[in-house]
Amino acid sequence: MAAAPLFHLVDPYGIDRSLLDDLCALTTKVRLLAKSPDGARFLLGLLPDRRAMLYFVQPSTRTFLSFNNACHILGIRTSEIRDASTSSEVKGESFEDSIRTFSSYVDVIIMRTPEAGQAARAAALMNRIPRPVPIINAGSGRDHHPTQALLDIYTLERSFEDRGGIDGKVIGMMGDLRRGRTVRSLCHLMQNYRGVRLVFIAPPQFAMGDDVKAHLRAQGIPFVDDARLADVIGDLDALYVTRMQSEWDTAGETSQVNYADYSITPDNIGRLKSGAAIMHPLPRGPEIHPSCDDDPRAVYWRQERNGMWMRVAILLKIFQADRLVHEFDLDAVN
Question: Which domain does 251 fall in, by range?
Fold first, then answer.
């Protein structure tokens, strides 16, 4: 069954297995096409009449650059705002009026904001104006980061492609789970896979939110809460490590964490399964020692690069150009 078309992408709630599988297949084909000059030129000619606004008023390196370059790979022209102080919002213009103004000039708005729910507000506005454009959530406050979750799914699928994919795997999530939007979004996508078990490893004050755990229970996804890394590390097929989100501190909460209990180091990495995958959304702090980077189980740099290719696939789906890629004969450029 063909995956349903995308318009807005603001959260992980409506993403089903057919769409995940389609996006993963599309991402792989885009990666292969881009390796040849003919394939790269084909991609560049797909969306040259489209324009994108990168509205990134929260600090970002990887997400901004990967979306910007994903646009360029497809011939999409970009404009950007990276500081709200440079927009008319400082003059008192409402968020909705700013977004509606952007929509007059571009064909898609990709946005990252420190406030939760902003992407949903923008999408709701688009749904009631005469010329709506798609909204892509590139991170909104502490609630969701759906495009990161999609690239994480792709990285997991690639890591387990010779072991039956994500189905049946034990996936650990470690670090600041309460304030980490990447793991929140990834948890919501786990309902699309059979037999997955989740293991949460976090300081008590940064445990996974009750709303996410309630969702997992409702979907019948088993999870272990309040696990110790030393007790579970040998059982994990993947370990998704996150940093402590100190930018959300109000009273120095992060300084109270004993990082030794929530870190991958040369001393404990050997206890992971030989085929395990260590992931991290980056940027990292002391939670993964740099000496672990050369371990074959460390896939976070591959994960980071996968972000650009997955975001190419997302843009292709939104503009309904994915069919052209699926129909393209790879043998013609190999």
Answer: 146-303
